[in-house]
Amino acid sequence: MAVILPGSYTWCMSKGRLEAFSDGVIAILITIMVLELKIPEGSDLLSLRPMVPVFLAYVLSFVILGIYWNNHHHMLHATDRINGAILWANLHLLFWLSLIPAVTAWMGETSSAPVPTAVYGVVLLMAGMAYYILSNTLVRLLGPNSTLAIAVGKDIKGKVSVVLYAAAVPLALVNRWIADGIYVFVALMWLVPDRRIESKLKASRSSVA
Amino acid sequence: MAVILPGSYTWCMSKGRLEAFSDGVIAILITIMVLELKIPEGSDLLSLRPMVPVFLAYVLSFVILGIYWNNHHHMLHATDRINGAILWANLHLLFWLSLIPAVTAWMGETSSAPVPTAVYGVVLLMAGMAYYILSNTLVRLLGPNSTLAIAVGKDIKGKVSVVLYAAAVPLALVNRWIADGIYVFVALMWLVPDRRIESKLKASRSSVA
Amino acid sequence: MAVILPGSYTWCMSKGRLEAFSDGVIAILITIMVLELKIPEGSDLLSLRPMVPVFLAYVLSFVILGIYWNNHHHMLHATDRINGAILWANLHLLFWLSLIPAVTAWMGETSSAPVPTAVYGVVLLMAGMAYYILSNTLVRLLGPNSTLAIAVGKDIKGKVSVVLYAAAVPLALVNRWIADGIYVFVALMWLVPDRRIESKLKASRSSVA
Amino acid sequence: MAVILPGSYTWCMSKGRLEAFSDGVIAILITIMVLELKIPEGSDLLSLRPMVPVFLAYVLSFVILGIYWNNHHHMLHATDRINGAILWANLHLLFWLSLIPAVTAWMGETSSAPVPTAVYGVVLLMAGMAYYILSNTLVRLLGPNSTLAIAVGKDIKGKVSVVLYAAAVPLALVNRWIADGIYVFVALMWLVPDRRIESKLKASRSSVA
């Protein structure tokens, strides 16, 4: 009666469940942020004005979470097995991402006051470092010759993001608009999709075929 | 030990993860709207009366999100691969859908005041355009002879919806009931399921078999 | 480059996506109900006392949603294809289930006052009827000789539930405890798992093997 | 036209749906906890100070839910079929987990006052016992010679956790810091991943291959 699943299939499910769980958390985060978009008090156009900074903060965080989902998707796409360390490195990343709705609302409602803007940067910095740790843990598991390792390469963009976020945190206390500019710049830098992995994958596939 | 997934399988997973993520976001949106259905103050039938416009707005948005999920489902059903542009076109659609709970609550609580009704129309208009962009991006990827391209065809219904929403926004400021009528009409128009794709799919399948 | 998915596989995905979407909505409903469990004001045991009716209402609705998930799971288990009508019958069921958190909170916070208790019954009644419509739509699609049709049979339990809920609504206005007793009774009646389908499935499987 | 799914495949889907539903609920719980992280009133560093106990409680509960997800993942990994009893044992576990956000917020906002700290322990105790019931139900289904039964073994860690939680509840009323220390200790004990199951699985696989 028992169904014996071949080993490879169960590993694949493992990865699938990790992806599904991460998708679930990111989907919820991206959606509950909207709960912070409190309904305006009045019913005329003027009552929309205090919503503007809240809305802009929402757009920025939506794009940032979209980028994380997208990159996470590409990275696990090039992964064929996982282990306990990766499960926890992934949960660590999700922890920092889970703080984004709260700091987005704080930054938005204070019209990007210095301290909330710096705290927003701290969360992005920690998320960036958590992503770096996750990608390193994956490369260590899969080996330096794996598709993933070659595709990730030196990960210049990832390192630049972390350095820029680290700079934005103290700068937010000096001039918050510089910090906001850095957050937008890093997001735009990533909106260029991670063609590195996609192209390497395509190459490795055609060489197999 | 490593499991080598064949290329076709990984592409399929890719599409599966996009569907799962979209399902997740739409499922959450459809459900968190209910959080705006604040509990009545009293405990008698009269205390339900101010809930009526909120409830009607909720029903309308529930149906609209259901239609998007349904059509999204059919469209990706007829799709066999995705790429980075589609991931982002999809996230763009989800962004506008994610604003529906907030504008539904605003429209409902102001008993469909002119400005909230117009803003509701703006969000539906942008979502309609985002859906159009997504479907065009898919057709460009899959080619003009793909099942999807033939099934989508000239997409009269999609274009009519966008034009009607564009008309409803200024009309809401003149007479809000006209705008509400348009929103209901467009929803009813789509409740007729997208038999075009379904029938084409069935045809292409039987011709293969 | 394109991956041609065989027809059977795509149908299977279709059903999978319907299940995943329904699971998502029910999982969210079961979890956001907890958001209504507002934190007590004080920090002593006495401050837990007003939570008691809220908690009991929460337990009841948690069990009811669990039963729906469970039965939904068994019913779709015995289903091998779906169509547009089923997608909408399913969304209709999810609509009524989505109102459960709001009416649970209303009933709980008013310590089961007559009107909230009756409204709770109305939502359960509509959900019961929506489930009945969904199961009938499935039987019509799959045919009277399908595993599902035989397993569902006359569905005595489903019909009895609907009748009991219909009786509970007016009774709640007379004596709310009778209505509460009916809600608990129907839940207990269903906690006996739907062995009909499970046993028929097992039978049909062993006859194939 | 109908697709006949082989029995083994449908069982596998069953397990998949149970996993997906559990993942969904845990993902939502882990994410809605963040909704309790209310935005600070002011916009300076001092306004972050009352957030500290709330944040620490959040970190603890995030880690505990992460551990449950992780162990749940490993346990079902080693499972090849499920039945109705397991569905309900699983829902019972999810019920107690679903109370974690509310008790976390209560404990955090009262800076770990005695009663909220004890109530937090009650929920963890019940969740621990629910997990134990689930694992026993699985072992009973799969038999004493199954991979799962061997891997779970005597489950010392599970039993120790339940005993420690049972001790923490009355201790919280005497000295809350002892209880908090116990909660942290149990979490750290589990952060060591459940290598038992992982290594047994690897062993059984290599012996098959």
Account of the protein in words:
The structure is a homotetramer of 209-residue chains. Chain A is mainly alpha-helical and 209 residues long. Helix content of chain A is 78%, strand content 0%. Chain A contains nine helices and no strands. Chain A has helices at residues 7-32, 51-77, 84-98, 100-109, 114-142, 147-152, 156-174, 176-191, 195-208. In chain A, α1 runs antiparallel to α2 (51-77). Chain A is globular, with a radius of gyration of 20 Å. The C-D interface holds C 8, 11-12, 16, 19-20, 23-24, 26-28, 30-32, 34-35, 37, 39-40, 43-45, 47-48, 59, 62, 66, 69-70, 73, 77, 80-81, 142, 191, 193-195, 198, 201, 205, 208-209 and D 1-5, 7, 10, 13-14, 17, 20-21, 24-25, 28-29, 32, 35-36, 83-85, 87-88, 91, 94-95, 98-99, 101-102, 105-106, 109-110, 113-116, 119.
Structural class of chain A: mainly alpha
Using only C-alpha atoms, the radius of gyration of chain A works out to 20 Å
Helical fraction of chain A equals over 70%
Order of helices and strands of chain A: HHHHHHHHH
Structure annotation, total helices of chain A: 9
Number of strands of chain A: 0
Oligomeric assembly: homotetramer
The largest chain-to-chain contact, stated as pair and per-chain residue counts, equals:
A-B, 43 and 40 residues
Give the termini distance of chain A in whole angstroms. Answer: 38 Å
Averaged pLDDT of chain A? 82
Percent of sequence in beta strands of chain A: under 5%
**Main β-sheet description of chain A:** none
Indicate the low-confidence ranges of chain A by residue numbers. 1-13
Give the CA-based shape of chain A: globular
